[in-house]
Batch of 2 targets.
Target 1
Amino acid sequence: MEKKAVLTHPYSAYERDHAAAENAELTHVEKGSPMGEYLRRFWQPVALSQELGELPVAVRMFGEELVLFRTRGGEPGLLEKHCSHRGTSLEFGVCEDQGLRCCYHGWLFGVDGRILETPGDPPDSRLRFNICHGAYPLKEYRGIIFGYFGPPDRLPEFPLYDTYDIAGDRLVPYCITYPCNWLQVHENVMDPAHAVFLHTRISFTQFSDAWGELPEMDFVPTPAGMVYVTSRRWNDKVWVRSNDIILPNLAQVGHIWEDGLEPKEFARVAITRWTTPIDNHTCRIIGWRHFHPDADPRGIADESLCGVESVDFFGQNGERAYEDRQRMPGDYDAQISQRSIAVHGLENLTRCDRGVAMLRQLLRREARKAAEGQALAVSPLRANGAIPTYAHDTVVTVPPVQDGDDRACVRDIGKAVTDIIVKGEHHEALDRAEQIRHRIREFAARQAATTE
């Protein structure tokens, strides 16, 4: 009997072809793999600063065994795990003023991999000048340690985005480890339909009732990557929301507890996060929760819950009892249960999966460009020295259309708001956010006037 990836009649599980392969071009991240080589061309978060104390820490990135440490002088370093002398793990080394000293024979390694001392050798030994230990460059920024894992001669600038410096905003680092492939966690950000069901209708209202209203959905390219656009009718308001994907693996998410009740224009993000590949079967979300009034209009956020393997909203880790997670699953449960690597050949994508499909296409395109040595897609825009981003929540007062197609009205409002934010000469203006808010207010006033 012929085995099939897609079944077409009842009680046909026996006919399933379970040999369908995962999409290795997108999911595999080891050195030499298409996606691994692409992701290595960008600064990637490795750990939170608070995870690094007086002792070295064994870490993995892209399937490589590494050791993260901080010198007594405060400088972080990232070295290959096994000592260049006899292979002892440097996780048992001693952090010193200038580097990390191996416990076995005392070799001292600088943060750049230079061998500073080989104390068991004669004083005139030149060995340490002839070899170097493997190391990766690091940058510590706002409580997160980032590493660059690509070719040294292609080291990019460290990117600064416009959501890093908003007045009154506190960026609080957090991380969550997921026992599954990086892509199925990352692409969740381009799946707005799951918020309707997983976060609202299936178990209970995890954020607010407005999330249970099935939105009009669109997916729009930006100079940095792409956004989803969801537009919902909620009473006499239309709530337009966008999440950012900033290529390759950075995402920005709008307000978690937005309820669509109060007018707002271009309210910015609640989460900035990377989905960092540890290996093909494990990844880590590392990023910041943003704490400012726009991101917490109902006063629900709890900064004290954000940190190592913890964040302050429901369903983001596996710490709850298994039966509790079955009754009230969250993002963590839905994503890790897709298998350790989701098998794309067994999926049946629908219209609401257009964002996932579009993201996969963008990643495939960029990975192939990296393999061919072509220039990769990065935003060329700067406003006040920062790269403009597009995630937002906007709520405008527009009563429902009484004698016409209100869903078409909601779609048109979503498109108009998105055009204001994503397009236009204000991209690099010093007062970009203020210009966007002013244009949205003008648009909302015109819309309200046409319904009177």
Target 2
Amino acid sequence: MIDLRLLREDPDRVRASQRARGEDVDLVDALLSADERRRSSGSRYDELRNEQKTLGKQIPKAQGDEKAALLQRTKVLADEVKAADAEQGAAKEEADQLVRRLANLIDPAAPIGGEEDFVTLEEIGTPRDFAAEGFEPRDHVELGQILGAIDMERGAKVAGSRSYYLTGVGALLELALVNMAINQATAAGFTPMITPALVRPAAMDGTGFLGQAAENVYYLEDDERYLVGTSEVPLAAYHMDEIIDADKLPLRYAGYSSCFRREAGTYGKDTRGIIRVHQFEKVEMFVFTTPEEAEAEHRRLLQWEKDFLNALDLPYRVIDLASGDLGASAARKFDIEAWVPTQGKYREVTSTSNCTEYQARRLSIRMREDGNKVRPLATLNGTLVAVPRVIVAILENHQQADGSVVVPEALRPYLGGRTVLEPVK
């Protein structure tokens, strides 16, 4: 949630943020109205309660007509108190619902526009010229078959479309990437975590995934549980309803989990291979820090993502997402897109978001500083490795003419020293 005090003091800034996101601007005025009704009815309730207390002291001392009048007033006052309390409760409920629909304020430095209006911050590495090397690159599906690493056919037979098996060196490659990511994260001071894949509604809603992203979330109605689409959700909720001492910040966690996404609205997109699937494994970085340090921490998360991809010798670019392409919780978001040779374009492999105080307010996570001062902290997240897409990038960028794939040097210790993935016989 955003700070209601900021909304009251500078509603135009909130309107501008909603407009830049392509979200409902009228929501701002509806919330202002509900908040004003809540505050005025609360004041009215307090005034009436004070009058009740005053009458309670006057009645024992009064006599005759005066006492009768005071008693009559107490009856009327009881109804007025009840009505004011009901009005206050209704206005509060409406305001609470509306503020949870309002997206985070965008960072003033974020580009304005839609999905295609991102700004490229840098390009790292040079895509290979396969034509100059004398062969046509195979895509990851064909390479996966040659290496005995990916089985799409049986994945679809068992689990339906957008499902797959990683087999042989494919399974080993996933485990190697996860271990490499966890090792890098722990070396950087992150606490490794294996997180729940099922969460309560409060955790999913608190991180902001039941708004615009709700259509992609799996819900188990009988159990009132959600399957997470990222370990960001259980990591964010880990300190839900807690107060953390400021001197313990930043708290950095690296969560490994399965991720589940319905991929609603993507009919016909990436139907071949493992770029867009219903289940995949991921290592996610998550940070709790002070609001003042959040921007610098965001840059650190981006650098850790770059370090990982640099170690894998993958060409990529870093983009600054435009306002209309941000999730509801993110004030600013950087994506890293790796080059996919057979598609001739960059595809997202990691992202990192600065969510400022938005998630912390929703999850009631605060920091204590200067002895007793308590206020919301900031949360940030960043993907260290989303396994299937990085496998795609490794196979396609490091393939050889015979269908073998050179293993990046940094990954070799996690693959038992293999230098090359060889075609199966």
